[in-house]
Amino acid sequence: MVNNVATGRDEAAVASALIGIYAVLALGTVAALVVLSEETPARATQEAWGHAVIVAVFAVVLSLRWRAARRGSSSALRAVQIIAGVLLAVNLVEACLSFFPGWMRVEMVVIAAVMLAVTVLLARHVRRTP
């Protein structure tokens, strides 16, 4: 028999790691754009900057909401689920748009995969929670 408390802790640890990976990707993208702006400005387009700044803002919001969810806030958990779902959808759509540089489209697909994992993990957790 699986211990639900331990499983919940394991899921929370995995979700924390995934959200941390997302934050690193988001902030790493901004750092990459700073470097590219100096080295090869054509690869640091205005669209890329707009996307990177929005993704970085969501990284902060998602981290703050996740911290509140870990403390037991059901509304924060719902917010994390919604944000993850929106990030999944938006990044997949934007990855299909040709005006983003190729390297950033790869980053968008990776972020979408991370958000898919967060969404599935939290959906499983919510279904098991009484």
Structure, explained:
By secondary structure, this protein is an all-alpha fold. The chain has one domain (4-128). Helix content is 85%, strand content 0%. The chain is built from 4 helices and no strands. The chain is elongated. Mean pLDDT is 89; it is low at 1-7. The chain crosses the membrane at residues 12-36, 48-67, 79-100, 106-123. GO terms for molecular function: peptidase activity. Keywords: Hydrolase, Membrane, Protease, Transmembrane, Transmembrane helix.
> If helices are DSSP runs of H or I spanning 4 or more residues, what is the number of helices?
4
Number of domains: 1
Global structural class? mainly alpha
Q: Strand portion, in percent?
A: under 5%
User: Tell me about the biggest sheet?
Assistant: none
Primary descriptors:
single chain, 130 residues, mainly alpha, 4 helices, disordered N terminus
Please provide a brief summary of the model:
This protein has 130 residues and is mainly α. It has helices spanning 4-39, 46-70, 74-95, 102-128. Keywords: Hydrolase, Membrane, Protease, Transmembrane, Transmembrane helix.
